[in-house]
Structures are given as structure tokens and as C-alpha cells.
Design goal:
- It is a single chain.
- The chain is an alpha/beta fold.
- Among the domains are: 25-263, Survival protein SurE-like phosphatase/nucleotidase (Stationary-phase Survival Protein Sure Homolog, Chain: A); 275-313, no CATH class; 588-776, ATP-grasp fold, B domain (D-amino Acid Aminotransferase, Chain A, domain 1).
- Strands 1, 2, 3, 4, 5, 6, 7, 8, 9, 10, 11 and 16 form a 12-stranded mixed β-sheet that branches.
- Strand 25 and strand 26 form a beta hairpin.
- The protein is elongated, with a radius of gyration of 34 Å.
- Residues 58-272 form the Survival protein SurE-like phosphatase/nucleotidase domain.
- This is Survival protein SurE-like phosphatase/nucleotidase domain-containing protein.
- One of its GO terms (cellular component) is P-body.
Length: 779
């Protein structure tokens, strides 16, 4: 559905508004797909939310910030920090509590403006009667009721921002639980007015036990309020069952992210007299000053001095004490037990059936996250740029994103928190070494023990000597390092690795040759005789001669895999020879094609290593057959980078969607192998792998499963080509970035262990911790 027109601002008759106003296809209610990033308007102690432009309005019944309204500025500050909503505020100019959803007939309301302090709790500037329009965020004050603030805010004050999507009323200075409170509440009245205008609305109240307020408790309550409001709005029923919510948050020292949240109904309690008789409380003294008469006597009416008067004095303590007499499940008893209460309502104060039990919010790291700048120096059209930026905005709405690699924030000494995601050569390594508190980079400096194939083989070989029982003994193919400048020296090199030479003479095994520093499958060849190996190196040299005249032409068009995986031997001296696994797991359901598993592994700090559970299966183009001298590489090479235009829909699949074998067994092996592989790299020394506390890196690690379900690690790739995942499985990469930002980036800038907050499994966590090793000194 396309964007629909904004609702008319000149509706006067009720029958002009469609009855099905909650329908997502009417003019009054805009499809929420276009209203998630949001603009909010806050009215009275209510916030209004607008759909097309994602706009919210806030209001209350306590008025502007002050002793009678101590929460609204903290709440607006939290909305700005933890959402990207556009917020407008319209409040009563003074306290208007206990006024319900009243409008004062015949009263002409006047607007004034205030400029709130950037620091919650500090005095505001104003009021003044003419809008300054200097780009400052002014709040509107109206000399009317909270419901009138909601009405005028929705239909008149903020028309230039588009229609309101959500009305937030509050936070009220005190509870609004049970019928006695909620039916008289101006806070709920403003939310009810918003609902009657066809806009989702939420009334928010903070139930305090002591008039002495702790700002930290207030900030916690506001943080939880924002999370809960976002959750309720995103999950708002589309079947016209809920018009508004009433939220009550117990403001106490125990309030935290772990505080329970429950759906409740309104406690239908009763009370007695809410007033007391008094004699005329206002008399004039001899000096003309007003004095209060303390004695309370039964009034007498006479024509000279007696006036019948009543003073507001409800016994609210008795009301609250009486809550314990009622069974649990209601809003008042929940608040009394320190539980956050969420009450779904229709716009006639009736409850909504079907909402019971505990409500769990998704885990979030937003609250403790300070502002930081994300430097993303990929082009906006790249595969990963929109995924990264969308997740950054979603998880850290106050983040600033820049794309200039020369932006001053990157420089050493800027003192600005920076998350730098860029190509290796674009990172600021000087700052990476010097500024471990404010600069987080997406790559380590030294990691050739992992990403160079010959170094990886050497690291694993060394590790196996020291740890003979390691899983790597049976789960890394037999490998030999080869250093060769020219093909004519091959025999001399083979003499140095005689174990391999002897096997080559026997012709019993097939082998795979990999240039140590190449990636994307470039230069890979199969062979099983010394003569075939000689021919491979000679063919490399022929390619050198053909390319001498085409300087730096590494992107020449290719037709087939066999033509596309050449290398320049003048640039490559080191090779790795591995025994070819001739019995790979072949799945009939996947066309009997060979495949390998691409696993994304995240190394963080110094040092934790995680394996991302959502893995890929990358398939060869052709049906598998045992290798021979005339083998077509397209049946053996599973690297999709080499397939180019020949790649088909079945080339890339989700690992967990495959059938016909024990996937959990393979997963367990992958986790164990990965942990020990990184331990092997660490053991090789800091010159070859140097973990840093302010860096992390995503690797693409390749595994092959044989017909006996033995899993072997093949190689580790830095800066994996995420684009090979394709558009259909882009959500897999999106989930990876979401996990990295939640598990790695957020804790770095908050000094908070995200894992502790996600033990309930409600977060994004799909990263399995496979190695947790404290590298002394950050190396």
C-alpha cells in the first residue's frame, strides 16, 4: 500500500470519521510500516505519534517541568536518546490533575512557549507568547485541560510535521492504577482523547512511595518507559481491539531492566468521601492579608459571613492499603508488588480480554550506550552499507554516521568515541594502538597466523605438537608448506618436504594447491602427480607473461572457472598443499553437488571468539564425481566467487535448511575446531596474531564435511565477501551485524557485559562463545 493522504484537519462532525478508524487502510490511521522511525508529539502529559512522517506528540496533566511535574523533561530526554522519533510537546500551563477527559466549554485557550533546558531537572526559559522559530525545540503550553492539549496538538499545533502517530501522555507524578485513580486521571484522559481521535495512545504513570525523588531512579523509569512504549507500539493490534494502554511503573530503588512487566486489568475498587467540610478558609485579617482558618467546625450559613465549603481530602492511603484485599492480576496490586503494570483498554475504559501474564521486552543495550560516531567508509550502494547503517540506527538511535575517511573524528587525539568500519587500509592504526578507550576498529593489525594459509597450517602443526589431543589433529587436512619462486626449482623444494614427495610418487592421493595469500578461490588447482604439479606452476608463469602488458589488470573478464582462478606468481611465493578430501558429504536433495560450510566467526578484543550460528552452505556448480586428471573444477570448487554468471539459485543455501544428516553434530565440531584454531594462532606469537582490546574482526571460515560427518577446517578469510550471500539470504548477514553491534560494539562503549542481560534468551544472541582467553597486555 502506498502512503495515504493525511487526515483532514477540518473534521467537525463525528460521522465524518470512519468508524473503523483503527483500520490500516483508512485515512485516519496510516500503515505503521511507514511509521517506525518516528516523529512524536507530546501533549499535556501526553505524547502524540504521527504515522506518515513518524511523528509523536507528548502531553501530561502535571504541566511544565517543575516540582509538580518532575518527570516530563527526563522522559523527553530519554525519547531523544533511545529513539529516532520526531517529538513535539504540548502541555497544560499548570497542573491539571484529577480532571479526567474534560474540556472547558466556552474557554478560549491561549498558547505560550518555553525552551526546555538541555539538562533534565534544570529550569526552562520562558514562557513567552510568540514562537521564536530559531531552530530551537520549543514546547507549547496551553491554558486548558490535558484532553484539550491532546486535541489541539493533534489537529492544530503541529500540522507542518504531518499527522500524529502516537499520543504519549505522561509520565504522571503518581500512580494511575485502579478505577478510583484512572477514571479521574487527566493523564489517562489525554490518552483517551488521543484514542478517540483515532490515534494509538498510551498513558504513563510513575508510582512513587516517597516525595523525595532520586534522579537515577527517574532515569531508569524513563528508560524502561521508552522500551515498553516502543514495544507496545510496534506490536499494536491491527484488529481494533486495543485503543490505548495505561502503564504504571513503580518508582523505587529496585527498578531495573529485570523488573517484571505484566498485563493487568483495572482494579474495580470503591471509596467513601473524598472531601471534608471546612469553614471559610479564606478570610481577611485587619491588614488585608489572606489567612487560613485552622479550626474545622461544622459550617453555619448566615447572610453575613458563613459560606458552605468543602476541601479535597481523599484518604488515598486507605485506598492503597485496600489493594491487598483483592486477588492478583489487577493494576494496583501489580504496582504494590513492584511490578510494572500494562493495562490494555478500549476508548470507553473497558478492559481488553486475552491480555494476561508476563510481558518480556527484547534485550537492549541502548540505555547505557553513550553517543558515538560510526565511521562507515563503504559506498552507500555496497552490499553491507545499508545493513550496517540500518542496524546502527535501530540499536543506537542517537548515533552519528559519517562516511568520509578523512573526517577529523577519526584522528588520534580527537577524544570522540568512534566505531570505525572500513577496509583494512582505511583504518587508523596509529589511533588503534594509542587510543584503546575511545576507538573501536573492525580489524586487528596483525593476523596472518589466521588468514595466510601457510601460516595457519604452521600454527596448527605447532599447536598439535604441544597439544596432541587437540581436535585439530583429525580435523585439519594433511598440509605442507611450499615456497617457490619459479617452476624450475620445484624439485628442490619437494626434496625439503620429502613426506609429501614420497606420497606424490605413490599416486595414491589427490592434492589441492592453494596460493597462501590469495582469496576467493584464486589459483586453486587439483593434482595427484609431480608432473601435474609442474604443469600447474608452468601455467602460472605463462599467465604472468600474458599479463605483463596489462598492468594491474586483475579484473579481466572471464568465461569459465578454470580460466578465472589464475594468479600472478611474481606476486606469490608461498603455497599450501593439502590432501584433497575425496569423500565429501553429498546430498541427493541438493543435486549431489559438493558443498562447503561458510561460517562467520567474530574475534573480539583480547580475546573472545564467537561463532555465528546461522551458517551458509556453498555448492559447486556441477554434480560431484571423484577427481581424475580430466576433472572439471566446476564439480570440485565450491567458492561462489568463481562461479560468476554461472551461479544458480542452489549455489548458496542456509546450512540449517539442509536435510539428511546430523547438523547438530557438525555444529558442535565447528565450534570446537574454531576455538582451538584461534588458540593455535595465539600460540604462534604476537608477531603473527595480535589481538587488541579495542578491535574486533569478522572472518569467513570454511569447513568441509565428509561422508562420515567428520568436519575439517579449510581456511580462514579476513573481510569475507558478504555479497556472495545474495539478496535472498541478506537477512543472515543482517542478523550477523545485529549480533556484532549488540555483543561487541555496545559493550565496548558501555563497559557492560551484554551476555548477562541476555541470559533469558530474549536478545539477538546467535553468537556462540568458543574461546575466552585473556591475552596479557592486550596482545
Amino acid at each position: 500500500m502506498g502512503l495515504v493522504p493525511a487526515p483532514s484537519r477540518s473534521l467537525h462532525k463525528l460521522d465524518q470519521i470512519p468508524y473503523t478508524h483503527r483500520s490500516f487502510d483508512t485515512k485516519i490511521w496510516i500503515n505503521t510500516r511507514y511509521a517506525r522511525a518516528g516523529k512524536i508529539c507530546i501533549i499535556g502529559n501526553a505524547v502524540n505519534f504521527v504515522a506518515v512522517t513518524d511523528y509523536r506528540q507528548v502531553t501530561n496533566d502535571d504541566g511544565p517541568p517543575g516540582s509538580d511535574s518532575p518527570f516530563v523533561d527526563y522522559f523527553i530526554d530519554a525519547l531523544k536518546k533511545y529513539t529516532d522519533w520526531d517529538i513535539s510537546v504540548a502541555l497544560p500551563d499548570c497542573q491539571k490533575s484529577w480532571i479526567s477527559k474534560a474540556h472547558v466549554i466556552g474557554h478560549t485557550m491561549t498558547a505560550s512557549y518555553i525552551l526546555p533546558s538541555p539538562t533534565p531537572g534544570e529550569p526552562y526559559e520562558g514562557p513567552y507568547y510568540k514562537k521564536r522559530n530559531q531552530g530551537e525545540e520549543e514546547w507549547v503550553l496551553l491554558d486548558g485541560t490535558p484532553a484539550s492539549c491532546a486535541q489541539i496538538g493533534i489537529h492544530h499545533l503541529f500540522n507542518d510535521k504531518g499527522p500524529v502517530n502516537l499520543v504519549l501522555s505522561g509520565p504522571n507524578f503518581g500512580r494511575n492504577s485502579s478505577a478510583l485513580y484512572i477514571l479521574s486521571s487527566g493523564t489517562i484522559g489525554a490518552a483517551l482523547e488521543g484514542a478517540l481521535c483515532g490515534i494509538p495512545s498510551i498513558g504513563l504513570s510513575f508510582a512513587y512511595n516517597s516525595p523525595v525523588l532520586d534522579p537515577e531512579h527517574t532515569k531508569t523509569a524513563c528508560w524502561l518507559s521508552v522500551r515498553l512504549v516502543k514495544y507496545l507500539y510496534d506490536a499494536w493490534p491491527k484488529d481494533d481491539t486495543v485503543d490505548l494502554y495505561s502503564i504504571n511503573i513503580p518508582l523505587n530503588a529496585e527498578l531495573s531492566d529485570d523488573t517484571k512487566i505484566k498485563y493487568t486489568h483495572i482494579l474495580e475498587n470503591r471509596w467513601g468521601s473524598a472531601f471534608e467540610y471546612i469553614e471559610d478558609t479564606v478570610l481577611k485579617s485587619a491588614t488585608g492579608e489572606l489567612v487560613e482558618v485552622a479550626d474545622q467546625v461544622q459550617p453555619e450559613i448566615d447572610d453575613k459571613s458563613g459560606r458552605l465549603q468543602f476541601r479535597w481530602k481523599p484518604n488515598l492511603k486507605a485506598v492503597q492499603d485496600g489493594v491487598t484485599e483483592w486477588p492478583d492480576g489487577n493494576d494496583a496490586s501489580a504496582v504494590a508488588q513492584g511490578i510494572i503494570s500494562v493495562t490494555p483498554l478500549r476508548a470507553n475504559y473497558q478492559g481488553v480480554a486475552g491480555y494476561t501474564g508476563e510481558l518480556k521486552l527484547p534485550s537492549s543495550s541502548l540505555r547505557s550506550s553513550p553517543s558515538f560516531t560510526a565511521v562507515i567508509t563503504y559506498t552507500s550502494t555496497s552490499y553491507i552499507y545499508p545493513l550496517l547503517t540500518a542496524n546502527l540506527h535501530s540499536l543506537f538511535p542517537n548515533v552519528k554516521i559519517v562516511s568520509d575517511p578523512n573526517d577529523p573524528v577519526i584522528e588520534k587525539g580527537s577524544g570522540i568515541n568512534v566505531f570505525h568500519y572500513a577496509e583494512y587500509e582505511d583504518l587508523n592504526f596509529e589511533r588503534l594502538i594509542a587510543d584503546r578507550e575511545h576507538y573501536l576498529a573492525c580489524s586487528y593489525i596483525y593476523r596472518k597466523a589466521l588468514i595466510r594459509k601457510n601460516f595457519l597450517a604452521h600454527a596448527i602443526a605447532t599447536y598439535k605438537v604441544k597439544h596432541p589431543d587437540t581436535i585439530l589433529t583429525k580435523h585439519f587436512p594433511e598440509s605442507y608448506e611450499l615456497e617457490l619462486d619459479y617452476a624450475e626449482y620445484l624439485d628442490e623444494m619437494l626434496d625439503e618436504i620429502y613426506e609429501f614427495r614420497d606420497q606424490l610418487i605413490d599416486h595414491d592421493s589427490w592434492w589441492i594447491l592453494k596460493p597462501s595469500m590469495s582469496d576467493r578461490g584464486q589459483g586453486i588447482r587439483l593434482f595427484h602427480t609431480r608432473e601435474e604439479l609442474q604443469e600447474i606452476f608452468e601455467s602460472y608463469e605463462e599467465m604472468d607473461e600474458e599479463e605483463e602488458e596489462e598492468e594491474n589488470d586483475d579484473d579481466a573478464a572471464v568465461k569459465t572457472i578454470s580460466e578465472s582462478n589464475g594468479i600472478v606468481t611474481s606476486q606469490v611465493r608461498f603455497f599450501l598443499i593439502q590432501k584433497y578430501i575425496k569423500n565429501p558429504l553429498i546430498l541427493e536433495s541438493c543435486g549431489n553437488r559438493k558443498f562447503h560450510i561458510r561460517t562467520y566467526v567474530v574475534a573480539s578484543g583480547a580475546l573472545k571468539v564467537y561463532v555465528y550460528k546461522d551458517m551458509l552452505a556453498l555448492f559447486a556448480l556441477k554434480q560431484y564425481s571423484s577427481p581424475d586428471s580430466d576433472s572439471d573444477l566446476e564439480a570440485h570448487l565450491t567458492n561462489t566467487c568463481l562461479q560468476g554468471d554461472f551461479r544458480d539459485e542452489g549455489s548458496v543455501r542456509r546450512f540449517w535448511s539442509l536435510e539428511g544428516f546430523d547438523k547438530e553434530m557438525v555444529w558442535d565440531q565447528i565450534c570446537s575446531i574454531t576455538g582451538e584454531t584461534f588458540a593455535a594462532a595465539v600460540s604462534l606469537g604476537r608477531l603473527h596474531f595480535q589481538p587488541l582490546p579495542n578491535a574486533f574482526e569478522i572472518y569467513g571460515v570454511d569447513f568441509l564435511v565428509d561422508s562420515d560427518l567428520n568436519t575439517s577446517i579449510l581456511e580462514v578469510n579476513a573481510y569475507p565477501d558478504f555479497a556472495q550471500t545474495g539478496d535472498e539470504l541478506k537477512e543472515l548477514v543482517d542478523g550477523l551485524f545485529k549480533n556484532v553491534l549488540t555483543e561487541i560494539v555496545a559493550p565496548f562503549f558501555t563497559a557492560k557485559d551484554i551476555q548477562e542481560s541476555q541470559k533469558d534468551g530474549s536478545g539477538y544472541r546467535e553468537l556462540a562463545l568458543v574461546l575466552d582467553q585473556n591475552i596479557s597486555g592486550g596482545w
